Amino acid sequence: MTPGSRSAGDRLTAQLAVSGVTLRYAAESGPVTAVDNVSFTIGKGERLVLLGPSGCGKSSLLRAVGGFLRPVSGEIRLDDAAVTGPGPDRMMVFQEFDQLLPWRTVAGNVEFALRRARHLSAAEARTVARDWIGRVGLSKFATAFPHTLSGGMKQRVAIARAFAVQPAILLMDEPFAALDALSRGRMQDELLALCQETGATTLFVTHAIDEALHVGTRILVLSANPGRVAAEYGVPEAAADRGAAQLAKLQADIQAVIFAGHGPMDDRDIAHA
Ligand SMILES: Nc1ncnc2c1ncn2[C@@H]1O[C@H](COP(=O)(O)OP(=O)(O)OP(=O)(O)O)[C@@H](O)[C@H]1O
Q1: Structural domain containing residue 97
Q2: Among 140, 166, 192, where does a domain finish?
Q3: From the CA of 136, how far away is ligand 1's center (Å)?
Q4: Both 133 and 258 in a single domain?
Q5: Ligand 1 site: residues with CB under 6 angstroms?
Q6: By alpha-carbon position, which residue is closest to atom 1 of ligand 1?
Q7: Are residues 127 and 95 in the same domain?
Q8: Over the stretch 111-151, which tens digit does the pLDDT of each residue have?
Q9: Based on the domain organization, do 97 and 40 belong to the same domain?
Q10: Could you tell me the distance, in angstroms and rounded to a whole number, from the CA of residue 255 to the centre of ligand 1?
Q11: What is the ipTM of this complex?
Q12: Are both 80 and 94 inside the same structural domain?
């Protein structure tokens, strides 16, 4: 994708097509196939969740869409242009709290991304950054440095930065996994609200079924070793309201698919809470 080739109106709403993608690493012990022949599409404004046990290749797929990992076979296209490397049309939010530039303030982090990715003037970047920092509830911390923030606040900054840049697609790699349960639930709600408000096309990785049901419009379940598409589910609207009753069956179905394709699991594999 050539940066800037899409009009501003199209941003945050691209279509992604992953076709027959196989990803492999050259490990010391030999080649490791992370995912094998995986295909899916994400329509404009959809939130697709990649769900599966540890090691099934969720993060690898996300990195490939980000342009950081080249498929050994298959192809990834964003708005019908081949993904051949990283670009500002894809913004990633990671699980780790250290994804901000430690020597820049909250505002400085968002402004820096805006100037680099959207080529805004300093004044324009300041205005857009202020708006997004406000939308994630951090106006009072605009001049704070990352090391003075809680984990949840740092994730909010990373999310504000990602949305502010208006990428074609947001790539989220378990952004709330390191948060306590209370913060995680609140952040899921806030992210959902921002996605619904902006119509952002989103690819979200998690190993928690409840999170997948809450934030996604569609769920792709991957089996492990190597990762292959095991099942796909549409998520009913009610999931966003945490309407547990009608989701129980869907949750049980997904759980059955994951357990069927997996041997003994460790605690980290599938989180329910
Ligand atoms: N840099 C690497 N070198 C070699 N093998 C790797 C590398 N990164 C990942 N792998 C392997 O690729 C497979 C998929 O890993 P990946 O991190 O994509 O899975 P995941 O589903 O995101 O796991 P988790 O939920 O634990 O983060 C695993 O077998 C892993 O060991």
Answers
A1: 90-166
A2: 166
A3: 31
A4: no
A5: 25, 27, 32, 34, 52, 54-60, 207
A6: 25
A7: yes
A8: 999 999 999 999 999 999 999 999 999 999 999 999 999 99
A9: no
A10: 21
A11: 0.97
A12: no
